[in-house]
Design goal:
The complex is a heterodimer of chains A (469) and B (355).
Chain A (H helix, E strand, L loop, with lengths): L2 H40 L16 E7 L6 H8 L7 E8 L5 H8 L2 E3 L13 E7 L5 E6 L4 H11 L4 E5 L4 E2 L3 H11 L3 E10 L4 E3 L2 E4 L6 H16 L17 E5 H6 L10 H15 L5 E12 L5 H21 L10 H16 L1 H17 L5 H28 L7 H34 L16 E2 L2
Helix pairs in contact in A: 1-11, 1-12, 6-12, 6-13, 8-9, 9-10, 9-13, 11-13, 12-13
Chain B lengths: L1 H4 L5 H51 L14 H14 L3 H12 L3 H7 L5 H14 L5 H7 L5 H14 L1 H14 L5 H9 L3 H16 L7 H7 L10 H10 L3 H9 L7 H7 L5 H14 L5 H7 L5 H13 L5 H10 L3 H15 L1
Helix pairs in contact in B: 2-3, 3-6, 5-6, 6-8, 7-8, 8-9, 9-11, 11-12, 12-14, 13-14, 14-16, 15-16, 16-18, 17-18, 18-20, 19-20
Classes of the chains: A alpha/beta (469), B mainly alpha (355).
């Protein structure tokens, strides 16, 4: 092959990759459209007032906390006001260096409690267990620092309920979040995990720990992340749900059957993406053991979280996510094309590998190759224009389609001006933001390859939207 | 575009695909805007309708009649949504008054037609309305719908049939629950609870008796036994005792144990406290906590050293709950326990009891 043949082959490779990548996402979109419609139809009567039956499964809400002195009391207070018949809140103070524990002791009148530990999953030592004298369903575990996964495992050990829900200390939940996300467990006893849609709280008004008014952030970075989250949740996860191939349940809010998680060994503490890794491992274990199971996604907006508004913090977050993805997939690679892998092993896993894991490498490579090739005269103008047309056109269609899904389902952003702002963000994010993300993800891939050490998320939060919390 | 059109014939279709994608994106963008405009119109119309009809509905709940404005076809679904919402919130005469209002609006036939709609959303609304309306003559159609593969529709139809004629449909509903394993237990229990504990008990016991004669129910009997929580479980004691005697399935035994409330059953509970399966032992410990006697202290103290954490925990709670066992006595039991884990567990349960 001559040099120009190689160039031509590379052109076609990148073009084909971009068509396949976006074509795959477009197929997921179509699947999501049908699934969301079916979901909304099936839940027509859900808005009617209904009493709890008493058969709902009790839930332990696990709140790992590390240096959360400023916000922990308001977060716990809002968690104690959720609408659900039976649940307990367990805060796990993971060796905080600030006054997190002192704040909790003071605000909730905690007293040491002689509780017997059941170490089903190995964790760093638990120094003390406290119980609130104000709220019988609140306990606090004080343990040595071991990271978020270790804290969650300690919470699982202490949990007294069949279901547990891992919640980030700064997550803002809807009052009926638990009811909604627990519904799949009532509907199908085979359900072992369920996740819900996480939305961005920047620009919203939060009072007393609950979101009272939906708004949009002024910062363009946060605005683009709203479109990005809509894409990720409304079709990135909803599309896989009917195939029982959801590989990610956000660590910000996810409900799990405790026995299932204990059976597979709990959260791994040697990965930065412990939430995704757990879900992929559950798929692997249940598929390979031929055990029937269901992992479901609930599209309702049930959890709100703050998005980074600085490039530095956003970059760190994306690098961490990409490393988490890499670890989750590599640690569970035996699921890939396993004869018993089902849709998770034969569709979702390879999809993740090709388009999400090594995707940034090819995407960034593609852009650099085409731009440099065109500048150097190695790539023809028609090929360059076609590549940009396909890459940007597909990106645009996916962004706009995420808004379409939102418009036919929940229309959370009710003001016309909000919709216009989101449409503008959906168009503009394709001109730089997505490419920048690919670059950061490539860096995350590299960090994983060289084996950089992970630690507690270093997300800096401003919480400027929070009032009276 | 000329340079692209005249270029490589292999590239040309890809180029046009790209153009097609851009056009499609534009169409979708316009669709989003059109949907939003439609939504705004719909909301505004709904708002106007609610403003006009809310007072009439409230008057109707109170039994006051008023002249009704003509209802446009497009407003019927909105009306039914509000009407159903109110029906789920009120009791007694108010429900009958709301029914009269619906009939006065001439919507009865429309609601019946909704059952044949191709939209599950409309079918569900129709089914729910018919249930509240208690319109006779629709039961057969509702029973048919209860056989549909769509679980929410099927269960809603079952509920509606039950609402129309509980006397005739209660047994049928319970048998359908046994058959339809995709009916969520919590939702079915909620529907049955609404019928009242007295009404539910006899048909439930009958269904359990029938199923108890089947050699292998594949978990169906255990599922049905759980419903005894919404019935007079004491009246089910004979069949529960029979199941405990005959069944070898640990899930069925555990579910049956939960229904025991009579101290006369203590011998069998004590026996099952040594069952090889922990899910049976843990239930036995719980029952001992409920109906046990002072003499069960020794058994429960032994169970504190069980290999399974939950059995130890429930045994400790049961010990604390036993009548005529004073806190001082519990402390005496604790200090002589040979197993440190057992002693710690009892200490925790004692502290929980004090909290």
């Amino acid at each position: 092959m001559t040099f120009s043949d190689w160039i031509l082959a590379a052109q076609w490779f990148f073009l084909a990759y971009f068509v396949a990548l976006n074509g795959g996402y477009l197929s997921l979109n179509l699947l999501s459209l049908a699934t969301i419609k079916r979901y909304l139809d099936s839940h027509t009567l859900d808005s009617l007032p209904r009493a709890y039956s008493g058969f709902e499964q009790p839930v332990s809400i696990l709140v790992p906390a590390y240096n959360e002195e400023a916000t922990i009391a308001s977060s716990v207070r809002s968690l104690l006001q959720l609408n659900y018949p039976e649940y307990e809140v367990i805060v796990i103070n993971d060796g905080s260096k600030d006054g997190t524990l002192a704040t909790l002791r003071r605000e909730f009148a905690l007293v040491p409690f002689p509780e017997v530990e059941w170490r089903r999953i190995q964790t760093k030592p638990v120094r003390a267990i406290y119980r609130s004298t104000l709220h019988p369903n609140l306990r606090v575990l004080d343990k040595e620092n071991g990271g978020k996964a270790d804290a969650l495992n300690a919470g699982i050990n202490a949990s007294r309920c069949p279901l547990f829900c891992g919640v980030d200390a700064d997550s803002i939940l809807e009052r009926d979040s638990l009811r909604r996300v627990a519904e799949p467990f009532l509907d199908d006893p085979l359900t072992i995990a369920a996740g819900g849609t996480v939305r961005i709280a920047n620009g919203c008004v939060v009072e007393g720990g609950f979101l009272t008014r939906v708004g949009l952030p002024a910062h363009p970075l946060a605005l683009m992340q709203i479109v990005e989250y809509l894409r990720a949740f409304l079709f990135g996860r909803m599309g896989w749900s009917p195939l029982n191939a959801v590989l990610i349940i956000s660590g910000a809010f996810g409900l799990f059957r405790k026995e299932a998680v204990v059976t597979v060994g709990g959260y791994r503490h040697d990965t930065v993406g412990e939430d995704m890794e757990l879900v992929v491992r559950l798929h692997r274990w249940y598929r390979l053991q031929r055990k029937p199971y269901q992992i479901t996604f609930v599209p309702d907006p049930i959890c709100w979280t703050e998005a980074p508004e600085s490039l530095k913090v956003l970059k760190n977050q994306r690098v961490r996510w990409q490393r988490g993805l890499s670890e989750s997939l590599s640690l569970n690679r035996s699921l890939l094309f396993h004869p018993r892998g089902g849709a998770a092993g034969w569709l979702a896993f390879p999809f993740m590998v090709v388009f999400e894991w090594i995707g940034p490498l090819i995407e960034v490579g593609g852009y650099i190759f085409m731009i440099a090739g065109f500048a150097l005269g190695l790539v023809s103008a028609p090929a360059f224009v076609t590549f940009m047309l396909v890459a940007l056109g597909f990106g645009l269609i996916l962004s706009v389609n995420a808004l379409l899904l939102e418009e036919i389902s929940f229309h959370v952003y009710s003001k016309p001006s909000q919709l216009l702002a989101l449409l503008a963000a959906a168009i503009l994010e394709n001109a730089g933001y997505r490419q920048l993300n690919s670059l950061w993800r490539l860096w995350g891939l590299w960090r994983w390859l060289v084996g950089a050490k992970g630690q507690w998320g270093d997300m800096q939060r401003s919480a400027t939207w929070q009032r009276g919390a | 575009l000329g340079f692209a059109i005249s270029s490589d014939p292999l590239l040309r279709p890809v180029f046009w695909t790209g153009i097609g994608i851009l056009v499609l994106a534009l169409v979708m963008l316009i669709t989003v805007l059109v949907l939003r405009v439609a939504l705004l119109f719909r909301r505004s119309r709904e708002q106007r309708f609610i403003e006009a009809w809310q007072p009439l509905l409230m008057q109707s709940i109170d039994g006051m009649s008023s002249s009704l404005p003509k209802m446009a076809g497009a407003d019927r679904i909105t009306f039914l949504r509000i009407w159903n919402h109110l029906q789920e919130s009120v009791r007694g005469d108010a429900t009958a008054n709301l029914n009269r209002l619906l009939v006065a609006c001439g919507l009865e036939d429309y609601v019946a037609r909704l059952l044949d709609s191709r939209s599950v959303r409309k079918q569900l609304l129709g089914v729910s309305t018919l249930g509240h309306l208690r319109r006779p003559g629709m039961e057969e159609r509702l029973r048919e719908l209860a056989g549909e593969p769509h679980p929410p529709l099927s269960l809603a139809a079952g509920r509606a049939a039950l609402q129309i004629d509980p006397g005739r449909n209660l047994e049928w509903f319970i048998s359908k629950f046994v058959e339809r394993e995709d009916w969520p237990l919590a939702k079915a229990a909620s529907i049955l609870s609404a019928q009242g504990v007295d009404a539910v008990t006899a048909p439930l016991i009958e269904a359990i008796e029938t199923l108890a004669d089947v050699p292998d129910t594949g978990g169906k009997l255990a599922r049905l036994l759980q419903l005894l929580e919404i019935a007079h479980a004491s009246r089910a004691a004979p069949v529960v005792r029979r199941i405990l005697k005959e069944s070898s399935d640990e899930r069925t035994i555990a579910a049956a144990l939960r229904a025991l409330q009579d101290p006369r059953d203590l011998p069998v509970v004590r026996e099952l406290a040594c069952h090889p399966e922990w899910i049976v032992r843990v239930q036995a410990a719980q029952v001992l906590g409920r109906i046990g006697e002072a003499e069960d202290r020794k058994l429960l103290a032994r169970m504190l050293s069980d290999s399974h954490w939950w059995v130890r925990y429930r045994a400790a709670q049961a010990l604390v709950a036993l009548p005529s066992v004073a806190p001082g006595e519990l402390e005496k039991i604790r200090v002589v326990l040979p197993d440190r884990f057992a002693a710690d567990m009892l200490r925790q349960a004692m502290a929980e009891g004090r909290a």
